[in-house]
Structure formats: structure tokens, C-alpha cells
Amino acid sequence: MKDLLRTQDLSRSDIELLLDTAADFAENPLRSNTALANKSVAILMTKPSTRTRLSSETAVAHLGGTPIFIRGDELQLGRGETIADTAKIISGYCSALIVRTFAQADVNELGANASIPVINALTDDDHPTQLLADWLTIREHFGKDISGRKFVYLGDGNNMSHAWLVMGAIMGAHVVAATPRGAWAPDPRVIEVAQKIAQQSGATIEVLHDPEAAAKDASVLYTDVWMSMGDSEDERDEKVLALSPFAVTENLMSLTEKDSMFMHCLPAHRGEEVEASVIDGTKSLVWREAYHRRTTIQSLLYHLVRGDLKGYSQ
């Protein structure tokens, strides 16, 4: 496995290896501080970022490498150089490429033409690096045995809902995406992929449209902002109206298991997708979750550059 382009690229054994190593990096960030010695990693972002940029640059530095941050408008891409040519040029200078952009097709093309590992750090379709941080946080809090537990995403059927369903399927979990019907439901093609994986892993995949039914007896309630980067402001009022019943409130949390927790990929808009008392309360794991963006990207870089990951066998 050369690249991580989609969540579905990972096998369960890959994920377990990545999480084990990330847990080690959480305890000792400089454990492998020569793994990227005298090497550089390009970090290409056409979308603004806080956690992804900071975690990526820190992860490279902790492995002994040099992070090179590049905005999309700083490359010749803006003057018509092809993605394929750009991938080949970056491959000549760097040992890996982390990319955060809009179109999944652009990340796929970078992976196809780069000779170095390419890591999808977010597209409009998927967010695999976030899900690694999420599952390390889940494992850290609940342990490796997740039998009988239900993990629920509520809100927009966006890239996070896609990654949530697919990762849960790979991990053999009971995962739910609770969204409105229609325009803001998850992509049916992603649901099909998750269900196909679940047939092999024993996972339970549900897509519901009733937030209370979804939240009942859940171990985790997870949400994301309602207006993502690139969403049209013209549809804000309609979208907020449709998503309002899916806001994570104290009332919704009261339907969950006694030891349930709240998670959010951040940034958060208190008073919209989550009540302030929930995200800032005792059941919130969001800050530990954000911390693990670094540990998991560090682990991913470490293992991809070494060629340790096998990939999911379709």
C-alpha cells in the first residue's frame, strides 16, 4: 500500500498497527525521531486548516523530517501545470505528500502519478486521517472490545459521515449515520461500500433519519459543522432548518448509555450542531481527539514511508 487516498483503502490489521504505533507516539512523541532524518514532507493545502496543518507539521518534525507547507495558490497549478506533473515534481524533492483539498479526483490523480506516499488529509468526499484519530480516542476510552456498543454520527451526510460509516465497517462496529433525507443524506455509493465491507467484518451499518432513535443506547454521539467549506451560503437557511433536529443536545445525550461520550472533528459552532454544555461538559472527548490528529498522522507517515501497510483486499 503506497498511499492513503480513501478510508476504504485500510484493512483492519493496518488500522490496528497504526493505532498501536500512534498510542506509543502519544506516550513518547520522539520515539522515532530519526525516521525522516534528512527528508522532507510536502503539505499541500487548498483549504484552510488548524488541526490538520499543525498536526502534520508537528508529526513530520517529531520524526526528524522537514515539513514544507504549500498553499495551492503558491504552485504552478494556478497557471495551468497539470496535477500529474506536479505530483512528479514533488516526488523528486520529498519523501511523502499530505494533501487537503476539495476534489477527491485530484487526490486520486496525485496518488497515481507520485512515486512517494500520498495521504488524503481531507477532501469533499472523505477524511481518513480524522477517523484514525477518532478511533484511537474511542479505543483509548472504551478499550479494544467494542462488542455491544453503538457509535452514532448525527448531522450532515458529508465527508465525515462517509468516513465514519466506512471506518466503522472495517472495524466490525455497530455504526449509525443519522441525517436528514434527500440532499443532506450520505452518498448511496458510500453506504454500499460500507455495507459490502460489513458483510466481511461482521459490522452493523445503519442510516437513520430519526435522531432520537439513533441516539438511544449509543456509546458515542459524534457530529460535524453543518456548513462545510465550499457549501453555498444560498442554501444555509434550508440546510440549518433540515439539520436542526440532529443537533447534539443534553436531551439527546440523556438517551445514550451511562458511560457515553461526545465527539466532534472541530471546528465547532456552539448553539448550532452542538450545545455548549455538551461539548464543554464532562462527557466531551474533543480535545483528546484533536490531540490524536498528531499521533495518528505521525504513525501513518512512519508506516507508509516504511511500506508496512498492506491495504484492504476488496
Automatic annotation (TrEMBL):
Domain Aspartate/ornithine carbamoyltransferase carbamoyl-P binding: 2-140
GO molecular function, one term: ornithine carbamoyltransferase activity
A Pfam match: OTCace_N
A GO BP annotation: L-arginine biosynthetic process via ornithine
Keywords from the named record: Transferase
InterPro entries the UniProt entry points to: Asp/Orn_carbamoyltranf_P-bd, Asp/Orn_carbamoylTrfase, Asp/Orn_carbamoylTrfase_sf, Asp_carbamoyltransf_Asp/Orn-bd, Orn/put_carbamltrans
Domain Aspartate/ornithine carbamoyltransferase Asp/Orn-binding residue range list: 148-303
Transmembrane spans: none
Name of the protein this chain belongs to: Unannotated protein
Organism classification: unclassified sequences, metagenomes, ecological metagenomes
